[in-house]
């Protein structure tokens, strides 16, 4: 599959854009007349710049309107286009895009416009060039690709074809099915962009709100399936109009190529007869659960962390055969504490302090999941293996952390028996009824949030919940939840743009550690809370004002509210009657914390109603900035 991207998709210098597009794996670009205005170079020099980066120029877009004009303006437009033909010859491209006219001077008329394109097609063919016509969603007379195709069909010139832009088709709510009837050799180019499902002026929306495939609400899969069903074998191009959702053009290019590849793979699976020149790629991985969480901690900090785990009801059950690594378990939850003084985990400790450095995900096929991740642009992770250690596939994740993939069908399903030696049972620790990991919460800069959402949704079989704003006394945290259809895997991703929020402070103080909190599922949170208290676990204190409001918000009996207050349990309920109960630990280290939850009925959220109370309570206890007195840290980096 040929991949392309418009130079107008990123706001950067042309040289930097070309380098980023090439490094991301694109085959070519669309170039606009606007690029010439700021370069001060000849078209020939710009063409050489493009080819020096290993890219082709798939399309040239001039600022010219043409069809349906009165005779005097028509001749002027033809002359302008002839001059652009000279530019194309210098650039080294043979395809020009012309959008449907928006000028009040355009007279319209299907036959008049067809005659215009017939004449232009003859002139283009005489110079070995081609013209592709695009129906702009706000075109004066042609705003529907079916009308544009009728103009091209009547023009009946081999050098004149159609360009299909998903935005112009789908943002107007037009069906994609009619595309299947268009001959493949008359589709000269395809452009892709997503957009949010928000009603607004389409021209404004096009210039301000174009998104990468998968980031909006347009039915792009249906569109690409329809195009591919024609037998179209040309380029699929991103046309984003200065998308500023990423901090750098490099990241936009990497994410864009990943989005294109994932979309094409989805279309190929949904439409088996589609012709996509793509290497075979494993299907999206279904996550069966979080197999382990690995903390990195120095020797002293490991003892402090161990005490916290004991309070939570975890027991040390095994020690690694070759590393300073201890396995803690409670029912189906595996927590690994790594105190190595060299290698990746130690580097993570030096950088972030006591923190999560590794997450193990249980999938159907571990190697297939890693292969798909790598084929979509992620980096494999590897480090020295000792005798007896398994070769567990892994890739780099958020904040430089690691994602390991395990499965039950290979030897990876016996990792705990293979790599760990049992310890003598510790009967002094009381289980608190925690069954499994309900969800993890990752924190990142706001500008990184779209990239990591795209990463997870293109690699794994997960769905996105709508983005919500989580209130913090010092600002807003943008949060998006991802989860599998069966709820076995849940992840909340929180984007911050100020260090003053609790999540932002964690990101700042931990120098970019990714996982801020871990939620464990229990079947009876009241029983778990009482056992936690017996283990000397200190829960996060919730102010009485929260419980005063609870009675007016929900029909809870006074004794129920009193019980929740006594145990510092938060409560939420959804519109179906399902409820959610939460209990938090006090903050530890650079601000990470634990959560215990109980889900009742069909509740599928994360207690967003309670977030302002939780963040305010955490901030009251949180560690001051470096240099302040009274720090609650564990795992302070000696090297920092």
Structure explained in plain terms:
With 640 residues, the chain is an alpha/beta fold. The protein is built from 20 helices and 25 strands. Strands 17, 18, 19, 20, 21, 22, 23, 24 and 25 form a 9-stranded mixed β-sheet that branches. Strands 3-2-1-8-7-6-5-4 form an 8-stranded parallel β-sheet. A hairpin with a 2-residue loop joins β11 (325-330) and β12. The chain starts with a strand and ends in a 19-residue tail after the last helix. 47% of the residues are buried. Residues 623-640 have low confidence and may be disordered.
Helix content: 25-40%
Number of strands: 25
Poorly predicted sequence stretches spanning 5 or more consecutive residues = 623-640
What separation lies between the terminal Cα atoms? 47 Å
> Sheet bearing the most strands, described?
9 strands, mixed
Shape: elongated
Sheet-strand content, in percent, reads: 15-25%
Structural class: alpha/beta
Count of separate DSSP helical elements: 20
Radius of gyration: 29 Å
pLDDT averaged residue by residue: 90
Pathway: Aromatic compound metabolism; 3,4-dihydroxybenzoate biosynthesis
GO molecular function, one term: 4-hydroxyphenylpyruvate dioxygenase activity
Organism: Rhodobium gokarnense
Family: Belongs to the bacterial two-domain DSD family.
